[in-house]
Design brief:
The chain is mainly β. Helix content is 6%, strand content 35%. Strands 13, 14, 15, 16, 17, 18, 21 and 23 form an 8-stranded antiparallel sheet that branches. The protein starts with 42 loop residues before the first strand and ends with a strand. The N terminus is likely disordered.
Length: 650
């Protein structure tokens, strides 16, 4: 493997100015000696070739790797062994030699093959970094026999061009670029996609209804007044907001509990982070007398929840806003909310406050009220050092008792209930915003307790400006492969695998010494960057890893990293590129990637993952997204990928 820059000239390079100069005038292969009686001059073959690759219709060899193998045959009438000197020049548009380029650190910038038998092919491999992609070159050879005789002329020229199926031009690294704040996770209304693993159908339970719908609760008084309470998610169409155009909406009774929620301007549906939720429901209490409709009270309820990643404490705020009382119902009141937290042995309601403000309305009055609640999850075991940690899903139901006033009639309260467990089955019947609490070991040496909205998919973000090699490699695999590992846009998350190295994933994809054997040390960045690394993507600590066997839950198993898209980072002049490696042209049906890149890039890009894992409380098989933080301007995106990469955080 050659390690060099692509500079022409300098460093003692004695450039040839005459492509027709006699080979003996530049004796790179050895000293020219006087002819002996039985000796004859060796002769280069007439059909030199370049590879790996194929010759196109115009006769130009198209090389698909940054390492070019140049070959020609050599013969000698006396049967003695001979070698070949290979000299490379840039070519003009007609294929004529223009300027010699150095392909080694030798005085004349040439490469010399080993000695071969007469009639055999001699070859040299020009290492990555000496030749530039998308430049036309020509080369010729001259033979030298062990007898000391040179060929008197050069072979015919062979024209070639390094055309890489993968050629990503990387930005220069910015060592001072700050690391992304991995705890700054965006609110989203898109929850985790369906699990890729087959699950058993949930058993039928008492409250078995579809997620996103809730049972209607009805009560009937002794004199025939029936009240039915109903809750359903707000979809932007199933409730008419009572606000005039150009008028600021009335503020909620209390400020927001969570940062992404504004009860005075409710968003439709469910929005969460890993630890905060803002969800909006339409509530209705329909009254009838002896089966004759009297009227329906409607309201929006904006529900806020805040979880603690370091304890089992859960805080909730229920905002009742935009209440609409029809003229047929003189007044309407709400009882304090009732909260049920399941399983009852581990989840207990700690406190429910009264309403902030008067929980009574008359027609035309749309004021807002709120109430706070708190509850606690506690595992049923003792001590932080327990060897049997628990992971438990919680179901929380909030019931609002509606009391419409009907003159001269007795009315019984009827609740409208919304909950985050649709059926009675906490494991299989959960709504998207269901809470999961655990006291497992996450990074730390002892278990810790915390709760998350486990269907929220967190995002790990690369510092692309500081580590462009790792970021560009992940971008390539994520963008081009059909399984799009970690891509939020394609809804293809990575699935976290604790202690990923135990499975031997990395050994399958990145055997010891692979990067050193296949990489280019010109990609190393600075004196502290000591060695090339094999960068595996998808990561070995995921079920997406190509090294993860299917029997252990692996989603993309391969028997060897040879089945992956294979690339290397290589410096061309002052710019690092990511190229395909050793003639391995991707077919884009692969399911994994490996790349020989800077060791600092590989380790630095993942340096923040431990803190991200701990902060987001990732457990086995939890999904997460990878944001490569890269933009790409591509001139082709079919069988070839030629792009200029820029870091979004540059």
């Amino acid at each position: 493997m050659a390690t060099a820059t692509a500079a022409d000239g300098g460093g003692g390079f004695d450039r040839n100015l005459n492509p027709n100069a006699a080979p003996s005038s530049r004796p790179a292969a050895g000293p020219a000696l006087n002819a002996v009686a039985a000796a004859s001059r060796p002769v280069s073959g007439k059909s030199p070739s370049a590879g790996p690759g194929t010759k196109d219709a115009s006769g130009v060899w198209q090389i698909t790797t940054p390492r070019a193998k140049l070959s020609n045959t050599v013969t000698n009438a006396d049967g003695s062994t001979a070698d070949l000197t290979f000299e490379v020049w840039t070519a003009d548009s007609s294929g004529n030699a223009k300027t010699q380029v150095k392909i080694s650190d030798a005085q004349y910038g040439v490469m010399v093959s080993g000695f071969v038998q007469s009639g055999s092919a001699a070859s040299v491999t020009v290492g990555a970094g000496w030749l530039k992609p998308n430049v036309d070159y020509v080369f010729h050879t001259s033979a030298y026999a062990k007898s000391g005789l040179y060929e008197t002329s050069w072979s015919p020229w062979a024209r070639f061009r390094v055309t890489m199926p993968v050629d990503l031009t990387l930005p220069n690294p910015n060592a001072s670029a700050p690391n992304p704040d991995q705890s700054a996770q965006a609110y989203t209304n898109t929850m985790a996609p369906s699990s890729p693993w087959t699950t058993t159908a949930a058993p039928s339970r008492e409250r078995s209804i579809a997620p996103g719908t809730f049972k209607t609760h009805c009560t009937t008084s002794s004199d025939g007044v029936k009240v039915c309470g109903k809750a359903e998610p707000y979809d932007g169409r199933n409730f008419t907001l009572h606000r005039r155009v150009g008028v600021q909406p009335k503020a909620a009774a209390q400020s927001s509990l969570v940062s992404g929620c504004d009860p005075a301007n409710p968003q439709k549906g469910l929005w969460t982070t890993r630890f905060e939720e803002c969800s909006t429901f339409t509530m209705s209490w329909e009254a009838s007398l002896n089966d004759v409709p009297v009227g329906t009270v409607k309201a929006l309820v904006v529900n806020e929840r805040q979880l603690d990643p370091k304890s089992g404490n859960i805080t909730e705020r229920i905002n009742v806003t935009d209440v609409d009382v029809p003229t047929t119902i003189p007044a309407f009141t709400l009882d304090a909310p009732k909260i049920d937290c399941e399983p009852s042995g581990n989840c207990g309601v700690q406190n429910v406050s009264g309403w902030t403000g008067a929980a009574a309305w008359v027609p035309g009055d749309h004021h807002s009220v709120s109430a706070d609640a708190s509850y606690l999850w506690a595992p049923d075991m003792t001590g932080p050092g327990t060897t049997s940690p628990q992971v438990m899903k919680l179901g929380v139901a909030v019931a609002l008792q509606g009391n419409p006033q009907i003159p001269g009639q007795t009315v019984q309260s009827s609740p409208a209930v919304f909950m985050d467990v649709a059926g009675g089955d906490l494991e299989n019947g959960g709504a998207p915003d269901q809470i999961r609490c655990d006291n497992t070991k996450i990074i730390n040496t002892v278990p810790t307790t915390g709760c998350v909205f486990h269907n929220y998919v967190s995002t790990y973000t690369f510092n692309a400006a500081k580590y462009p090699q790792a970021s560009s490699h992940a971008w390539l695999i994520q963008h081009k492969l059909a399984n799009h590992p970690g891509s939020k846009a394609d809804s293809k998350p990575l699935y976290f695998l604790p202690d990923g190295d135990i499975s031997g994933n990395r050994t399958v994809i990145c055997p010891t010494g692979w990067a050193a054997a296949n990489g280019d040390t010109s990609a190393l960045n600075g004196t502290t960057d000591k060695a090339l690394n094999c960068d595996e993507f998808a990561f070995n600590a995921t079920y997406n890893s190509g090294g993860m066997p299917s029997l252990a839950g692996g989603l993309n198993p391969v028997s060897s990293g040879d089945a992956c898209v294979q690339t290397l980072a290589s410096k061309q002049g002052s710019t690092v590129h990511l190229f395909n490696i050793d003639g391995h042209t991707p077919v884009w049906k692969e399911v994994c990637g490996r790349s020989a890149i800077s060791g600092n890039d590989n380790s630095g890009s993942m340096a923040g993952f431990g803190a991200f894992n701990a902060n987001q409380r990732l457990l086995d098989r939890d999904p997460y997204w990878l944001n490569t933080n890269m933009n790409a301007a591509c001139s082709a995106d079919s069988t070839t990928v030629k792009c200029t990469m820029t870091a979004k955080n540059q």
